[in-house]
Amino acid sequence: MTRFLIFCLPFVSTLADDPQQLSPAQPSPEAMAAKLGIRLPPRPWHMADVWWNFPKTTPNFKKLEVEVTIDRDIPDTYNLYVAPIGIARINGIDFYGGLQTNVNGWASKTSRTRVHPGMGAIFSRWAKDKKTPLSLDNVRTVKGGLCESAGYEGSFCSVRRPFKWGKGSYVYSIEKGKKEGEKTWFDCRVLVKETGKSIDVGGLLFEGKDFTFWSTHAAFVEIYATSKIPRSGIPKVNVTFGYPLINGKKPDFRYASAYHPTTGGAGSPSCAKARAEGDKVVVEVGPIFLRPSSGNRYSLKIKP
After folding, report:
1. 19, 24, 119, 271: least surrounded by Cβ within 10 Å?
2. 75/98 Cα distance (integer angstroms)
3. Is 21 within a domain?
4. Other beta carbons within 10 Å of 3
């Protein structure tokens, strides 16, 4: 993972004076960009990437948990992806997942028809070399769940579980499960904190029996594209990520930072800011603005 020098960008809240702070609505990205005289990159847009860095790796990895709080309901007329696990790595294998306003995928292991049931959660992994195809033997679906195995963003397989989510707090977790020969299942669950309900998203099979978690963790907030909604708008929303728990504990803290990519496959218009709030990170998404070119990477003064 590339390390970088970081520039601290002051955070100024815009929602406090917003009379529509309970609503995600704002002008279209195209209208906001035209007003500022800028061009929009193609979607998807990583509006904010948050990185935690730890002094060392974690051997005997069993469980990863990240709490996320969303401050308002977001209609499924947007394609919003809140990923408490923006990227994680065990034994050199990358995985990610979170909550989406529009999950989509194959209705079963025997179907290649894409369906769009609405809100839900997603858990995906890549092949270690990003090239070797991963069959659907590597996925465990639940009743009403979706799956996919493809190569359009590197060879990956995935499970998705439709369920309605909204304003509130959730704990997204990945936990080591049963062994199957020389491989091991990892199961994904979403705990709805207000009700205590635990939602089984499904599971993915990983090569190996013992696993080491890397010394880094990332989360992101994204606007993505689907055939259902190819040009999603940007909702106003505050997303708060908790400090990652690995095997039930906070790993020792080294440093944390925010990154707002402007180019490449996840390049985004400037429409989000991140700030530390104790041991948490708040990502505030709102109108498109002009960010200084030196201000897309900056440190987060987390107090774990």
Report:
1. 19
2. 17
3. no
4. 10
Alpha-helical (H) ranges within 22-118 are: 29-36
Question: Is 304 inside any structural domain?
Answer: no
Residue-level pLDDT, tens digit, the chain, 304 residues? 333 333 333 333 444 344 334 568 999 999 999 999 999 999 999 999 999 999 999 999 999 999 999 999 999 999 999 999 999 999 999 999 999 999 999 999 999 899 999 999 999 999 999 999 999 999 999 999 999 999 999 999 999 999 999 999 999 999 999 999 999 999 999 999 999 999 999 999 999 999 999 999 999 999 999 999 999 999 999 999 999 999 999 999 999 999 999 999 999 999 999 999 999 999 999 999 999 989 999 999 999 8
Rounded to whole angstroms, the Cα distance separating 182 from 80 reads: 37
Q: How far is CA 140 from CA 102, 115, 167, 180, in A?
A: 20, 18, 28, 13
From the list 16, 43, 49, the residue with the least C-alpha distance to 102 is 43
Determine, yes or no, domain membership for 196.
yes
For the chain, the domain total comes to 1
Asked whether residue 35 is domain-assigned, the answer is no
